[in-house]
Write the structure tokens for this entry.
Amino acid sequence: MSRYFLLGYLCMAKGSYYVGLDIGSSTVRAVIAESRGEDEVLRVIGVGKTPSFGMRRGSVVDIEAVAKAINVALEQAERMAGHAAERAAVSVSGADLLCQEALGVVAVGRADGEVTEDDTTRVLGEVEARLTMPLNREIMHVEPRDYRLDDIKNIKDPIGMRGVRLEMNALVVSGSASHLKNIERSLDHAGTTPTHLVAEPIASAEAALTLKQKELGTVLVNLGGSTTSIAVYEDGDLLHLAVLPVGASHITNDIAIGLRTSIEIAEAVKLQYGTAVAKEVSKKEEIDLSLFDSQEEDMVSRHHVAEIIEARLEEILDFVNEELRKIGREGLLPGGAILTGGGAMLPGAVEVAKHILRLPVHVGYPKSLGGILDEVDNPEFATVIGLILYAEKSGPGSNGFPAGRVWDKLPDGIQGVAEKIKFLSRKFLP
């Protein structure tokens, strides 16, 4: 047994650490969680949150600015957890995320025709091999939907069954190769390695949707800053995924234009007085803008603000409906719609969504973990908690490493010095 294998084994025996990093257009969130054994629930031990810079509509436009924001969020989480976040599962958004159906076919390997795990692995590889992918795109996820074994269709798990020809129908999620590379470069500049690059709506669904909701048929709607992402599940499988280039920041922009004021004041007005149901607000109620900036003198109608919010939110949800229409699920999902992201907390969002989507609608909170729950019990943390759960379930990614690390077996004194070096390097190194 090699020294490195032994150290890794001891580290995993002590406990595993998982880091989730949600790089949004308006906010960067980082969470560190610890698992001490199979029977132990994941415990959140570190949380970081900071305004995002260098991102526009889910895409990197300034690598250094993104790296600095990542550093701030990770440092906050590291100091709280007492653990270095050198590797992380990272969210990927942007309107260039696409999904498409693909088919793979292989011959069953065993002479007796029994399907094994090796056959399902080979047919998964065949899906990727047969898919014609442009050079400027990169496969991120291959989500199996069902199998066919000879003449038997709609098989969920073919292992143990007998046949000759095994087919897999899958949904393939891809992203822009340049966008993914820019995320990786930003992470590299921040001193962090991605263990998994996960499409944002898949991560959010991991945290906010139950198995029953995925079986019934449910759409997750993540109302982010510059984008709104959706993931549709049915029969337990991912049916559709899309990222729309409009989000909660567009509501803020509309308020700023409508009130002829700054973005900062518009955001403050939205957070303190905003609602998406204009009819519930008196036309006589006014907002004193001088409360937010002494140089402002205007009194503005709160009803007018609500009208602005309602109009933009209805537009966003109309786009969601259009995506559901493409797959024949408009108004036809028994599990309804689950709203996540910062925009989900806007008063009246659920009521407007019910009206536009013609579905049951609820706000989606991330699944309960142990540890410092108060810090993450919020729809805006659904994506980053989903990243933690995805990493735990998936294990090491194709471009990643095990969660347990040799770092944890260093003597305490050396750990302390190493931590200080890491923090200093984050601050001062390019």
